[in-house]
Amino acid sequence: MPLSFSSARAALVSPALPPSNPFPLSRALLEAVLADRLSDRFVCELIWPRLGYRPVAAPSTASGSWIAGPATPTEWAEAFPEAPALIATRPASVRLTRSIPAEHKQLLKLQLGFAGYRIGELYPRRTRRATAVNWLLAHLAERGDSLPDTGPLPPLLEPPADPVQGHPGDLPVG
């Protein structure tokens, strides 16, 4: 079912962020996402708290799972009660794409000067990363926040030797 215009906006501006503070966004961080210098999991963890998902501390899961919280838009919570693997899972990536309002679809190009990947670089993982970055830029725009040039960065990874496989620990893309 397609998202309505108002539900798309609700996905970008949740009423309140969950108690866990999301990692601060910056131009340098988003460029690292596009350059495949961060794991798919880290990219998801940039978006999940901004969609209202909350981490669940469970001793049995090493990486921890995230579940929908009160600030998660209803459409997301119903479709994905557990935070989806946004890069590995096509339905989640499609929903993320559709939740970006039309007026923000070009922010990747306008704010970061991103012209896209070259033909030889077109892999689902990379195009979904571009979608994730565009969603994050739209989230900032909807909230009226600016994107600083610099900010904290996690340890950067070398781009994966095989962009289809991704980094060690990245889920297979479906």
Question: Could you characterize the architecture of this molecule?
Answer:
With 174 residues, the protein is mainly alpha-helical. The chain has a single domain (5-143), classed as Protein of unknown function DUF1823 (Actin-binding Protein, T-fimbrin, domain 1, Orthogonal Bundle). It is built from seven helices and two strands, in the order H-H-H-E-E-H-H-H-H. It has helices at 5-12, 27-34, 40-47, 74-79, 90-98, 107-112, 124-143; strands at 53-56, 65-68. A two-stranded antiparallel sheet has the order 1-2. A hairpin with an 8-residue loop joins strand 1 (53-56) and strand 2 (65-68). Helix 3 (40-47) runs parallel beside helix 7 (124-143). The longest helix is centred in the C-terminal third of the chain and has 20 residues, at 124-143. The protein is globular, with a radius of gyration of 15 Å. The chain starts with a helix and ends in a 31-residue tail after the last helix. Mean pLDDT is 86; it is low at 1-10 and 12-19.
